[in-house]
Amino acid sequence: VESLKGKDLLALDQLSGDEVKGLVELGVVLKKLGSEGRYPKLLAGKILGMIFEKHSTRTRISFESGMIQLGGHAMYLNSRDMQIGRGESVYDTAHVLSGYLDAIMIRANKHTMVQELADEASIPVINGLTDIYHPCQALADLLTVREVKGALEGRKIAYVGDGNNVAHSLIIAAAHTGMEIAVATPEGYEPSPDVMETAVAIAGKTGGQVSWTSDPVKAVSGADAVYTDTWTSMGQEEETAARLQAFKGFMVDDALVKHAKEDYMFLHCLPAHRGEEVSASVIDGPNSYIFQQAENRLHAQKAVLASIL
Ligand code: CP
Ligand code: NVA
């Protein structure tokens, strides 16, 4: 996706619909090549620094594998081991790292910090999850629906649970591709009004639809895909008890998915909590695509890296 060369990837509302769809299609191509054992060395000699302020399995390993498959190198940087973990400024860190690396991928507590890093760095910055967005996840999610359902436009995806970072990026991604996204959360845990407004504006141009309800059955009715995420995101551990209470009735279980299309896909960004946001019967059942979805992080991110670098 030529237009993304040298750009940051912080949030999907900064991309055009064609760019989002282009990344998904490039992901399809790179996945097919990989399945044939072909790994074009598009990023030979390129170095990605990967800064983590939070835990990660999928993001860390898929980005590192992706860089290696593309002929480049990735460096895991735990923020606690860096001087930034003991107070060195984002400003100084951004300028210093720009001299060593070709791009930065960062998972951070605060989106504002990632924005500052991107503003100050002279190299592209990729968001690997913040408090408000998880764009690389949403690209892999689109890729998974595109593979299984053949197309995105006109498909209905229901997101049930917490209106969090994963939900925000999914809502914008769905709007960009002309999908219908129906979100069900308890009151008080809705997606951010800014995100909903942005997504509605994008959907107005693509023919997509964006809606919110507090009724999971309404959201899931007729859905092609049913998506959920943890009720307690990283950094919210102290709220666990209150959240378990607030999200009662929002578990994606057999009774709920009966309202979706018979061939619905179950999706979850992982890590999952069986018996909380999803029943074991659904996440481990025949309609679950969670491992294909997790694998697609690799392919979608290779598309991002190849385009940006
Ligand atoms: N889905 C996701 O981002 O997983 P990790 O936290 O393991 O990276
Ligand atoms: N919403 C979750 C996603 C983890 C990949 C979190 O932020 O912890």
UniProtKB/TrEMBL annotation:
Location of the protein in the cell: Cytoplasm
PROSITE patterns, sorted: CARBAMOYLTRANSFERASE
GO molecular function, one term: amino acid binding
Top-rank lineage group of the source organism: Bacteria
Pathway as given in its UniProt record: Amino-acid biosynthesis; L-arginine biosynthesis; L-arginine from L-ornithine and carbamoyl phosphate: step 1/3
Catalysed reactions, semicolon-separated: carbamoyl phosphate + L-ornithine = L-citrulline + phosphate + H(+)
EC number: 2.1.3.3
GO term, biological process aspect, one: L-arginine biosynthetic process via ornithine
Recorded GO CC terms: cytoplasm
Binding site for L-ornithine: N165, D229, S233, M234
Task of the protein: Reversibly catalyzes the transfer of the carbamoyl group from carbamoyl phosphate (CP) to the N(epsilon) atom of ornithine (ORN) to produce L-citrulline.
Family: Belongs to the aspartate/ornithine carbamoyltransferase superfamily. OTCase family.
UniProt protein name: Ornithine carbamoyltransferase
Gene: argF
